[in-house]
Structures are given as structure tokens and as C-alpha cells.
Design brief:
Blueprint: H1 2-30, H2 66-80, H3 85-96, H4 128-141, H5 148-162, H6 182-188, H7 196-204, H8 211-217, E1 225-227, H9 232-236, H10 253-259, E2 269-271, H11 284-289, H12 296-299, H13 305-320, H14 325-338
Helix pairs in contact: 1-7, 1-13, 2-4, 2-5, 3-5, 8-14
Organism: Urochloa decumbens
GO biological process, one term: hydrogen peroxide catabolic process
EC number: 1.11.1.7
């Protein structure tokens, strides 16, 4: 028991160090910059290779219309089913956090071996049919050229743009992985019921993503909905004490309980950014600042002064109705950075002809 206590104390110190010291350093530079070129996106728009081996315009000669094909399909799909924007953005997150951005989230289970799709955090994912539709169009134009991993990255960018968010150049050239394991998803996806410090240390930092990336990428919760089961513990049994999370806005709690009538509700959907859940903007930070975030992972950003300052700054922008230049530039930069995580390039992996199956 003493050794376990010492280990927990050490982890607690690391969390405080990362959130109390590293984060302020990262946030200082972004507090006055809104130009994406100033925030490290300069190399991604030049067409030159970045350190991961990816480059903007990778398909310039092998499939020159690739991005236009993806964009045209996404315009049609989002105009018909706007609620897919959030889930399609989420697909890219869930792919990259599990053994890198290799399209493994798209693979079906085979021969009794459950894939990432079967893991509890992924059971509510949607949009697989959209990826298949885009892939089919690309296969018609350029057979065996554009990877499923790149499709996920391009679709994520396009749904953000189509919901009034920022545009960024997506470095491409990813190859598709051949392995998808259910347990890997359980081991690598940050749970919504962990606090922000634990998620940072356990899931973001090991992937090369820092404290600023965390607070920025969580802003992606401005799009979409969540099942009650993802946050019901905060309403009914926080920390196993049979009470609500005391950090939840007391005026908002009854509304959430009215939507989620019991802790076992696995079907009801709740907007993560009420009133703006189909528009990509900074308004989600208003809910975090006011104690109205659905998830422990997001609400506990307010426990760190620097993270809280970033949240409040974006909330103020949203309240004023001003253009969220800082958040948009930061989000674009962090998406490019996340999209570089553990990618396969060159002769690694393969380019699947159907995203749900290896060749």
C-alpha cells in the first residue's frame, strides 16, 4: 500500500507539473496570435514533406482530383445529414489515438478477433457508410491510390469547414494499417470520465500531443451529441457517492436529469454544445466555463489556471459574437499535429481497396 500511495503521489505531481507549468508556456504564444502561419502551419501549406513523411499535395500527380472528390461528396452528405459532422470528426480522433492514424478504426472484425469497432468507446461511432461512399468514388477515379487513413483526415477537415469552422491544408500520404484490435482501443482512448490531468499524462503526452493540444482539441466537442451513458455518473453517482458532481451548474443539472432519466439510459442523445451543436465555433467553451460541460474530462480543464484562462478567453469571444481567430488557428494546428501521430508511409502498410477489409 505505501508503494502504491507513493506512485499516486508521483503521478499527481506530474499532472500538476504538466498542467501548471507546461501549459502556460504553450498558451502564451497563442494568446496574441491568430495567423495560422505563425502557429506552426507554415510547413504544412508549403507542399514540402513534414517530419512524419506526409506532405500537402501528396496525390498531386497520382490522383490530382482526390481532395475535390472528397469535398464534393461531403458537401452532398452534410447537406442531407448535417448531424453526421460531429461523428465524422470523431472518427479521425478515434483512429489516431489508437496506434496512430492508420485507418484501423474502419476495419471489421475477422475470424472471431474483435476489431476496434467492437470496443465500448467505439460502439456509438457513426459515419462508416460515409467513408465507404467516399472511398468508392475515389476508387472509380484512381483505383488503389488514396488510403482510407487519408480519407478520414480529409473528411474531418471538410466537415469542420462545412459547419463554418476553419480550413487547413491536410498533409497526406498515410498508408493503411492491417491490424485492428478491440483491446487497443480500450487501452488508448481517453475516457470522458477521467480528469483532464490524467488524460493528458496517460493518453496525450505519449502520442506527442501537449497540454495545449488537449484543451484545443476538446473544443471539437462543439459539434455533435453524446449518449447519456457517457456522463450519467456526473448526474447520479459521482465518485460512487450517489450524488451529482458538485462542479455541475446547479441550474443546468435538472435539465440534464430531465433528458437522462436514469443512469442506465443508453439511447438518449444530448447536445454537447446546446444551441450550436451543428456549427463549429468557440461556443462550447462557454459551457465549460459555466460548469455545463457533459464530461469530467472537459470540465476538469477548469482546475488548472492556464487551461481555465484559455477556456474563458474563448468563451468571451463566443459571448461577444466575434470571429474566434485564435481558437480556429489553434484547432487547425492541433489537427495537423494529431494527424501526424504514428503514421505509416512509404512501403509500410497498404492502400486498402475497401476500408472495412485488408486487401
Amino acid at each position: 500500500m505505501p508503494s502504491r500511495f507513493a506512485s499516486l503521489m508521483m503521478h499527481s505531481m506530474v499532472f500538476r507539473l504538466l498542467f501548471g507549468f507546461v501549459l502556460p508556456l504553450f498558451l502564451q504564444s497563442s494568446s496574441v496570435l491568430s495567423n495560422p502561419l505563425q502557429l506552426g502551419l507554415q510547413s504544412t501549406s508549403s507542399g514540402l514533406p513534414n517530419p512524419s513523411g506526409l506532405k500537402v499535395g501528396f496525390y498531386q500527380y497520382t490522383c490530382p482530383n482526390a481532395e475535390a472528390i472528397v469535398r464534393d461528396e461531403m458537401i452532398k452528405i452534410i447537406s442531407q445529414v448535417p448531424s453526421l459532422a460531429g461523428p465524422l470528426l470523431r472518427l479521425h480522433f478515434h483512429d489516431c489515438f489508437v496506434n496512430g492514424c492508420d485507418g484501423s478504426i474502419l476495419l471489421n472484425s475477422v475470424m472471431g478477433l474483435p476489431s476496434e469497432k467492437e470496443a465500448i468507446p467505439n460502439l456509438s461511432l457513426r459515419g462508416f457508410g460515409t467513408i465507404d461512399r467516399v472511398k468508392a468514388k475515389l476508387e472509380q477515379a484512381c483505383p488503389g491510390v488514396v488510403s482510407c487513413a487519408d480519407i478520414l483526415a480529409l473528411v474531418a477537415r471538410d466537415v469542420v469547414v462545412l459547419t463554418k469552422g476553419p480550413h487547413w491544408d491536410v498533409p497526406t500520404g498515410r498508408r493503411d494499417g492491417r491490424i485492428s484490435v478491440k483491446q487497443d482501443a480500450l487501452d488508448n482512448l481517453p475516457p470522458p470520465f477521467f480528469d483532464a490531468g490524467r488524460n493528458l499524462y496517460q493518453f496525450f503526452i505519449p502520442k506527442g500531443l501537449d497540454a495545449k493540444d488537449q484543451v484545443v482539441l476538446l473544443g471539437g466537442h462543439t459539434l455533435g451529441t453524446s449518449h447519456c451513458s457517457q456522463f450519467a455518473d456526473r448526474l447520479y453517482n459521482f465518485s460512487g457517492k450517489g450524488m451529482a458532481d458538485p462542479t455541475l451548474d446547479k441550474r443546468y443539472l435538472p435539465r440534464l436529469k430531465n433528458k437522462c432519466a436514469s443512469s442506465g439510459d443508453t439511447t438518449t442523445l444530448v447536445e454537447m454544445d446546446p444551441g450550436s451543436f451543428r456549427t463549429f465555433d468557440a461556443s462550447y467553451y462557454r459551457h465549460v466555463a459555466r460548469g455545463r460541460s457533459l464530461f469530467t474530462s472537459d470540465q476538469t480543464l477548469m482546475n488548472d489556471p492556464a487551461a481555465a484562462a484559455y477556456v474563458r478567453r474563448q468563451a468571451a469571444v463566443a459571448d461577444s459574437g466575434a470571429y474566434p481567430a485564435e481558437f480556429f488557428a489553434d484547432f487547425a494546428a492541433s489537427m495537423v499535429k494529431m494527424g501526424n501521430v504514428q503514421v505509416l508511409t512509404g512501403a509500410q502498410g497498404e492502400v486498402r481497396r475497401h476500408c472495412a477489409f485488408v486487401n
